[in-house]
Amino acid sequence: MWTAEKLGKAGSDADAYATEAVKADFEEAGDSDGLRTVRTDFDAGWRRPIR
Q: Which of 17, 20, 23, 33 has the most neighbouring CB atoms within 10 Å?
């Protein structure tokens, strides 16, 4: 949900994003697929600076 919030998503959009991010993490063994998905999403839609 942290990632969804940082991407400007809220409510059902945030829930849907979180579900898709978890699904992406199970595409390959290890964490790299989930991290790659989140990184790609941040690169495409980052809205706020990291604090």
A: 17
